[in-house]
Amino acid sequence: MARRICLLFLAVASPLILILFVIPWTYSDVVFAILVMGYPVALVGVAVGRGDSLSGLGVVALFLFALLEVSALAMYVLRGFVMEAPWVGGLPFAAAIQLYGLWLIPLLVVPLAYALTFDRFEMTQEDLGRLQRFKKTPEERP
Amino acid sequence: MSNLAQPAVIWTALIYLAVVVAIGFWAARRTRSPKDFFIAGQSIGLIVTGLAVTSAAFSGFIFMGGPGMAYRMGLASLFIVIPSSFTAGMLCWVVAKRLRLLAEVREIFTVPDVIFCRYRSRRASGLAAVAVLVGTIGYLGAQLKALGILIEAIFGTREVLGGWSLAAAMAVGLVIVVFYATAGGMVAGVYTDLFQGALMVGAAIAVFYYALRVGGGLEQMTRSIAESQRFGPSHLDPMGSIPVFTAMGFFFVFAVGSLGQPHMLHKFFMIDDPRKLKWMPMVIGVSQTLCVLIWLGIGLAVPALVAGGRMAPLDNPDQASPLFLLGFTPAILAGLVFAGILAAIMSTADSFLNIGAAALVRDLPKAFGRKVGDELAWGRLAVVAIAVSAAVFAYVYGDLIALLGTFAFGTFGAALVPALAVGLNWHRVTAAAATASIATGMGVNLVLEFLAKQTFISCLPGLPFQSGILPSAVSLAASFTVLFLVTWFTWNRRQPDLGEDVDFVMSVGKSTSK
Which of B69, B140, B205, B295 is least surrounded by CB atoms within 10 angstroms? Predict the structure, then answer.
């Protein structure tokens, strides 16, 4: 189901983005931002999904999806409020969301999640065993 | 370009170039087969591969163009590089594992090889090879021209050679890159990339430190920018200084487009053991993020210095990096950074020489059902031919090559991402869909970028979109749309048998993949 939702998202979001580009509408820019932020997570979902689930990466995918979407919406809402909004970590709030939220948090979470789930979901012992069956010497490779 | 011809800069650049040439000599003795030449014998470890991906991905643009963009459009420019924090993970989840495992069961040297394996279609792989070649000439031409301009500035050749200066500087850069790319192939490529990547990371960290020190810390810099009349608060507003469509378009093109960059993907074929992918996102993510510090550091420090009256406003934003380095950092660090910029340009150029040569002597003949006899010898010849053509093209048609250089990333992304990222993970994508998607991505991007930037033909129309929309974002979305549409209409057709091994690779990590 989760994988199908990701495929459906990509299949619907792509033409929708093209429509937003050619038909001007008041909210087309914010809708574009929401769709764009969902793209990377949907692609990961298609790649790691197993039938009905995201193979144990559902929590990471949901977290990343929420982080990207909330960050984009917050930056959108905070447009024009640089001086009025609080400053965090030496930066105006929207810039702090951009640098700390969109840049540093995924850097901490994504590579770690990948490494920690690698042996269980990405390349299991069973996969490696099956690989030996298909592995060929360079001379035998078609 | 500022006058960089200072002893510390000249000596550091000379030492750097000598090391690169030495690596070329060393690697030449280890290059004996096409496999060595195109994928470094599939014998490269984790750190070397990770840094090679970083240095191939980040050209001189990160060091020179990036801070210039930050000076011109503020923090919104960072949407180009911010995705680097998670694109490494995305790369490994979506494509890298399958690329590497395919290279374990088939003879895979290039991205068009992968397209052929996945779709059993010469048309799809041939089109992919054309996309690679077109993008390569553009990227390479832009890199060689930048290399010439930098060598000219560092060694002050204009005063000696006058009008021939740029041509001579480009020739020197070309000879060095072609030497190590021809003699040592990818063995030389990845080890120079390792050296170059380490240099880029070290230089970026040091510059960020000096930027913070000179500017008085992050908060002082941002406050003085926000309170200045020249820049104002919008400079620090991620979606305030440019249209949201442009800011989010940067994010879309550079996050999703990174999955289709052949000079990065190519490196994954070279890892000696697929299990080493486990820590690859960490190595790539951290090294890329550290390199981006130079964009952020100089991008904030220079506007803050200008706002505080310590630096004159810039006529040309691309001068932000050289002026900051020469005026506010120790000479030896400035020298190291300029060597780092040379490194960034050369490492990207050598990657493109290799994949361009592979497209010419391997992928295109295969698309026509032919095979080149001695791939190693022809590969070396092709490197020289591509380098010389790109350099001549860049020198003679300077404006056109700049145009080609800017759209190359978008062309690769639009042409290759849907067929690779969706196709390698979903069995239902058909060869017809992949072919149509590659043709759409490449064609739409070429036409739109040309219409957006051309000034040669006055009667041609501009882009038929709202202002601020990036042509490469349109072509990427169009390419995905076509992939899904054609798949929808053709998935009932009989699909070719991919082979048990390819089916296995596509199902690794998925117990119920079809």
Answer: B205
pLDDT at B359 over 70: yes
Q: How far apart are CA B143 and CA B83, in angstroms?
A: 23
Q: What is the C-alpha to C-alpha distance for residues A93 and B290, in angstroms, rounded to an integer?
A: 23
Cα–Cα distance between A61 and A142 in angstroms, integer?
A: 37
Quick check: B328 pLDDT over 80?
yes
* Closest CA of chain A from B249, distance in Å: 8
Q: Counting Cβ atoms within 10 Å, is residue A101 exposed (0-12), middle (13-18) or buried (19+)?
A: buried
Residue B216 in contact with partner chain A when CB distance is under 8 A: no
B267 and B283 Cβ atoms separated by less than 8 Å: no
- A122, A132, A137, best to mutate vs chain B, most B CBs in 10 Å: A122
Residue B255 pLDDT: 96
Q: Is A11 on the interface with B (CB under 8 A)?
A: yes
Residue B513 has pLDDT above 60, yes or no: no
Closest CA to A109 of B285, B275, B201: B285
Burial class of A62 by CB neighbour count within 10 A (0 to 12, 13 to 18, 19+): middle
Mean pLDDT of the residues in chain A: 89
How does pLDDT run across B266-284, given as a tens digit for each residue? Answer: 899 989 899 999 999 999 9
CA distance B230 to B223: 13
Signed CA dihedral, B242, B248, B251, B252: sign only: negative
Q: What is the DSSP letter of B272?
A: S
The angle at the Cα of B187, spanning B186 to B189, to the nearest 5 degrees, equals 55
The amino acid at residue B307 is A
Query: What domains lie within chain B, and their CATH numbers?
Result: 2-394 (1.20.1730.10)
- Percent of all residues in chain B with a pLDDT value above 70, rounded to a whole number: 96
Residues with Cβ within 8 Å of residue B361, at least 6 apart in sequence: B372, B375, B378, B379, B382
Structure tokens at A110: 């994504």
Phi, psi of B401 (to 5 degrees): -70, -35
CB-count exposure of residue B163 (10 Å: 0-12, 13-18, 19+):
exposed
Does A47 contact chain B (CB < 8 Å)? Answer: yes
**Distance between first and last Cα of chain A:** 36
